Amino acid sequence: MRKLAFLVAAIGWGQTFQATPSVARQGETIRVRDAGAATSARMSGRTVRLFPQPEGGRLGLMPVPVLTTPGSFQLEFLGDNGKVLHAATITVRDARFRTQNVVMGREIQELQPSPGETETFAEFRKSVSEIRRWAEPLAAPVPGCMISPFGVKRLHNGKPTGDYHGGIDQRSPAGRPVHAVAAGVVKIVRKFNLRGGTVAIDHGQGLESVYLHLSGFATTEGAVAQKGDVVGYIGSTGRSTGAHLHWALYVNGVPVNPAQWVPLTACPTGNRKARPHS
Ligand SMILES: [Zn+2]
After folding, report:
1. How far is the CA of 226 from the centre of ligand 1 (A)?
2. CA–centroid distance, residue 84 to ligand 1 (Å)
3. How far is the CA of 13 from the centre of ligand 1 (A)?
4. What is the average pLDDT score of the chain?
5. d(CA 244, CA 213)
6. What is the model's pLDDT at position 269?
7. What residues form DSSP beta bridges with 77?
8. How many whole angstroms from 274 Cα to the centroid of ligand 1?
9. Paired sense of beta strands 153-156 and 99-102, if any
10. Neighbours of 209 (CB within 10 A)
11. Which of 23, 26, 137, 180 has a CA that sits 20 to 30 A from residue 220's CA?
């Protein structure tokens, strides 16, 4: 019996200074755990909080930004006083993101954000709330295949935008329900010029999700959504050239690859219906 308890502790929360995966690709999320005194973690000048978990120990999420130069990094575990308790080596690999062109009409291309759109969104991304409402695995918001993966360098009508795709596009007919990927507090339910119908959910402890181009809503700001709840309906509002769902995950304010969190299949290439819609 004692042996069993020891085994459970050894493979579970008993471990100190865990960072997984230790070899990550650009856009991935590193889970940082400690059963000891670490209360935050730092890598490349970014510090994230480690939150106490009900099963014991602490957990935090360290994003690897898309634009990270591949190489070796130190992930430091910090105590309450900011003292470095331990350092782990993280290898960041090149994710080899491709380039993708989106063909769009002039009115669509020239759309400007609504007053307050950029600020509202920035404020949402910046916030980190205390209560963890998410649990793995997350659920895909719609069943459709992936028209456009995360991280691709985007061109609009053949012209580089200098930006990358900060989320995933899934194919789905207009009007289909969009489900929350995890439980969380609904922070934004708005019609924006650029993002179109937008729902943004705070899942707690640094994890957030957003759903764009919606044709309608099934939730309200301040509501608590459960995993799988319908929060809106597929549309093509805002900067979009056809019905699809653009959804994104943010880890401590940084866009990360949802495909690391949710299994998704790419649409067959060469299919006209599988063209990207922004
Ligand atoms: Zn998109």
Report:
1. 24
2. 39
3. 37
4. 93
5. 8
6. 78
7. 41, 86
8. 13
9. parallel
10. 25
11. 137
For residue 193, the CA-to-ligand 1 centroid distance in Å is 15
| 246 Cα–ligand 1 center, Å | 4
CATH class of 99-274: mainly beta
How many angstroms does the Cα of residue 77 sit away from the middle of ligand 1? Answer: 35
pLDDT score of 8 more than 60: no
220 pLDDT band (50/70/90 cuts)?
very high
| Averaged pLDDT, 207-215 | 98
Distance 166 CA to ligand 1 centre (A): 7
Whole-number Å distance, alpha carbon 222 to ligand 1 midpoint, is 25
Share of the chain above pLDDT 90, in %: 89
Q: Calculate how far, in angstroms, residue 142's C-alpha sits from the geometric centre of ligand 1.
A: 14
Measured in Å, residue 134 CA sits from the centre of ligand 1 at: 23
Report the separation in Å between the CA atom of 278 and the middle of ligand 1, taken as the mean of its atom positions: 4
Q: How far is the CA of 57 from the centre of ligand 1 (A)?
A: 36
Token duo for residue 148: 């456009």
Q: Is the pTM of this model over 0.70?
A: yes
CA–centroid distance, residue 33 to ligand 1 (Å): 32
CATH code at 2-93: 2.60.40.1930
The CB density around residue 175, as the number of other CB atoms within 10 Å, is: 11
- What residues does each domain of the chain span? 2-93, 99-274
At residue 277, the pLDDT reads: 72
